[in-house]
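Support request, please re-run this one:
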Amino acid sequence: MRTLIDVPFLSAVDQVAREEKLLVREPSRALVGAIQEVSAAYNALGRDERARRPSTALPDALSARLHFFLPRDVGKAYEAARDLMPRLVQGARVRAVDVGAGLGASALGLAMAVRDLRPDVTLALTLIDDDRAAMAIAEKLLVRLFPEVSAAARFLSEPLSAFSPQGDVDLVLASNVLCELERGTELNLRADRLAALLHRWTRGLAPDGHLVIIEPALKSTARALQAQRARLIAGGFSIVAPCTHLKACPLLVDEGDWCHEDRAISLPSALIPIARAAGLHYEGLTFSYLIVSRASLPVTSARGRVVAPPRDAKGKRGLSICHDGGDAARGTLSEFERLDRHRGPSRDAWVAAERGSVLSMNPWPEPGRVDGEVSIARLGNGER
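Re-run finished. Output below.
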């Protein structure tokens, strides 16, 4: 398990919590109870369409968001941004807007990814949210963790309806936004309104711009995101990640399936006692996401994405791979297995593959046994 959140990050959070007179980071009854309440409220969004956006502005709820949920959400944004990094132009100045920014998790995750993977890139950030208390915290965190980025950043306390890009934005980040909008609206009407919002944001991007959408890994929210994927493709936009094709999603066929990530990432050790006290997971980072491109992308068919945990048995490993397939309209979900006795670089790529990995195979095999003659490479989702 990797850990993305380091000691300087936690120290910055602790400093801001003291300044804002919030709860301290310890497994106290007050903090653990607040974390449980916020978790239950957000889970309700995936179970009940009548559930409203939870009130998280109260001091204890704000403490729960800052100490526990922020580190997780920063990790999700970082992981999604990794797939975007190969798409950024060398030395570019990226005008990025974090809509519904809250405590700034998406902006912080993006800044971390740029720092670690693309230090040649400069960020010009704008954070938008109508929660003034959260925005104040986001600004303080960005100042402490990324002072150079914060110097050019803008923090706007205004509703999402005020945001309408006009070709002056390279990147829009929308994390846990769709699941909170239009609650209580009839399902089809809600989907229509959210689609109109996403189309407006994507059409307003610069010609080579991107929209990154991150949603909870719950079945209802993940399937709703995949349904929006179909609308975006029909609108002429391309999907950079996680999908390796632009056909209909095969995981929407069965109501019991949904596409989501489960990354091998753990909370930092300092947060594990709090997670245990709250009865929440601290290993594994789950989320669903899309990276949408305004520009058209080359069609590639010799790539597929692992969409389930690998199946290891004596002498072989099996993978469930979503790929272009032979159907003219819908992608294909195929089961493959490869024997361990086949050595070489292809074996290394196959053994290293995990849920979410993208593989190229040449020639692309029929479902079932993958023989040793097939050349296999592990790719990043942003690679084309």
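The domain at 7-293 is CATH 3.40.50.150 (Rossmann fold). The longest helix spans residues 59-84.
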